[in-house]
């Protein structure tokens, strides 16, 4: 039986490029067979533990993004990460209050942003927001909070402006009990990410922008285990007594 296959040039090109660079890498590293076998065992544990997305999002995704976007105009993307969940509650009324528990622990946050295009103002952009809670945990994953706690989606106004009321995210550690943690510590890294808000923008005719917002002065900015920090994604957290305020503007690229 013969089956006609259509060659996917992108797959073939990527594989050939990978092998070319792999050969240089191996010439440089000179692994012995025991090291190779240990790597295979670790990769097997990684797959069985379900941590492949975690590992790749922490240690690879940021390099993919940097390579593609470092010199292009518009807001720099940062990693989507493993904690995005589709179907967050749709918030209709501005200011948009993130779904939260009664007496949600943490400092109250008012965040103001604006979304525009590299070509000018943008109205009614779809925004999705997700973040950790005051325990450093994400709803729908490792937190005991109700599903979609501190997750929401909404639209900017006619001028691209939006205001969110939530809590201030805190730095958190990526999971360390499995093969990803094993690698992290073997390499001598810590497991912390600086506090950040995940945010995703969608607008017709524009490339979807997935990025993060970070806060000046965070102790983990320079050594983020996932390397997701970009200077253009930093904002100041201002103290307003009973709450904190921050703001940042975002620029989307046309498709
Ligand atoms: Fe995160």
TrEMBL record:
**The keyword Iron is assigned to this record:** yes
Question: InterPro entries this protein is in?
Answer: Catechol_dOase_N (IPR007535), Intradiol_dOase_C (IPR000627), Intradiol_dOase_core (IPR015889), Intradiol_RC_Dioxygenase (IPR050770)
- List the keywords (alphabetical): Dioxygenase, Iron, Metal-binding, Oxidoreductase
Q: Among its keywords, does the record have Transmembrane? A: no
**Molecular function terms from GO:** dioxygenase activity
Please list the residue ranges annotated as the Intradiol ring-cleavage dioxygenases domain.
Answer: 81-248
- Please state every residue range assigned to the domain named Catechol dioxygenase N-terminal: 8-68
Q: Name one Pfam family in it.
A: Dioxygenase_C
Q: Which co-factor is required?
A: Fe(3+)
For this chain, the family text in UniProt reads: Belongs to the intradiol ring-cleavage dioxygenase family.
Protein name per Swiss-Prot or TrEMBL: Dioxygenase
Q: Which organism is it from?
A: Planococcus notacanthi
> Source taxonomy lineage?
Bacteria, Bacillati, Bacillota, Bacilli, Bacillales
């Amino acid at each position: 039986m013969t089956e006609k296959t259509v060659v996917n040039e992108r797959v073939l090109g990527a594989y050939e490029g990978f092998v070319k660079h792999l050969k240089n890498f191996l010439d440089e590293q000179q692994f012995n067979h025991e090291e190779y076998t240990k790597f295979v065992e670790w990769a097997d544990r990684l797959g069985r533990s379900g941590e492949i997305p975690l590992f790749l999002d922490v240690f690879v995704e940021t390099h993919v993004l940097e390579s593609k976007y470092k010199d292009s105009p518009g807001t720099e993307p940062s990693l989507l990460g493993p904690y995005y969940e589709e179907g967050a509650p749709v918030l209709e009324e501005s200011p948009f209050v993130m779904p939260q528990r009664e007496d949600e622990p943490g400092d109250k946050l008012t965040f103001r942003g604006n979304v525009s295009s590299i070509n000018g103002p943008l109205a009614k952009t779809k925004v999705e927001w997700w973040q950790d809670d005051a325990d450093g945990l994400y709803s729908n994953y490792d937190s005991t909070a109700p599903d979609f706690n501190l997750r929401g989606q909404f639209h900017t106004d006619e001028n691209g402006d939006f205001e969110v009321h939530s809590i201030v995210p805190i730095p958190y550690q990526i999971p360390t009990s499995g093969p990803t943690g094993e690698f992290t510590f073997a390499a001598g890294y810590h497991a912390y990410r600086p506090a950040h808000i995940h945010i995703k923008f969608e607008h017709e005719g524009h490339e979807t922008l997935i990025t993060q917002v970070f806060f000046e002065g965070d102790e983990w900015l320079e050594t983020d285990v996932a390397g997701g920090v970009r200077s253009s994604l930093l904002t100041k957290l201002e103290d307003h007594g009973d709450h904190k305020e921050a703001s940042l503007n975002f620029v989307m690229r046309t498709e």
